[in-house]
Amino acid sequence: MRLHHAQANPEAFQTMLKMESYVKESGIDKRLLELIKIRASQINRCAFCIDMHTRDARKLGETEERIYLLNAWDEAPHFSEEEKAVLALTEAVTLISQAGVPEEVYEKVRAYFDERQFVALIMAINTINCWNRLSVSTGKAPEIVR
Fold first, then answer.
1. How many CB atoms lie under 10 A from the CB of residue 94?
2. How far apart are CA 26 and CA 114, in angstroms?
3. How distant, in Å, are the alpha carbons of 31, 57, 58 from that of 61?
4. Are 110 and 18 in contact (CB under 8 A)?
5. Whole-prediction pTM value?
6. In this structure, are residues 1 and 141 in contact, taking their beta carbons and an 8 Å threshold?
7. Is 115 exposed, middle or buried (0-12, 13-18, 19+ CB in 10 A)?
């Protein structure tokens, strides 16, 4: 690890914890939240966060099969239309410089979530992207479990 970001800048770390606290209290289903976190972390290649959130998802009852198929969620029949809409939004926001958030993605999410919930989803996606960028930039890696 290059540096421990929480020790190097405790104020920044506390700000991240406030964002995380908001997301946890936002009303987003906890299993759906873990799918968001895993998928964004896969895109951002954050090994630390992938490890953490796949473990957290399993604790919430998520299946191995769905975790393994998350990279190809749009091809797998294992995800509901609501989950697919949120995963499409997760990809669009995580890769926002490529195409923004297409109207089709927005409309699909809005079929399941009201305006307040939509903003909460964006905050959840933004928060995991921030954590990913902190972890990748500082060289944080998962512990090796033998």
1. 21
2. 13
3. 8, 7, 5
4. no
5. 0.94
6. yes
7. exposed
Tokens for 7, please give them. Answer: 């020790």
How far apart are the C-alpha atoms of 50 and 41, rounded to whole Å?
Answer: 6
Q: In angstroms, how far is CA 5 from the centroid of its own chain?
A: 20
- What letter does residue 133 receive in the DSSP assignment? H
Cα–Cα distance, 96 to 79 (Å, whole number): 23
89 contacts 73 by C-beta, under 8 angstroms: no
Q: Are 130 and 43 in contact (CB under 8 A)?
A: no
User: Average pLDDT of the chain?
Assistant: 96
Q: Distance between CA 92 and CA 90 in Å, rounded?
A: 6
- pLDDT per position as a tens digit, 35-67: 999 999 999 999 999 999 999 999 999 999 999
Backbone angles phi, psi at 27, to 5 degrees: 95, -5
Rounded CA gap, 144 and 75, in Å?
A: 31
Contact of 73 with 79, CB cutoff 8 Å: yes
d(CA 99, CA 92): 7
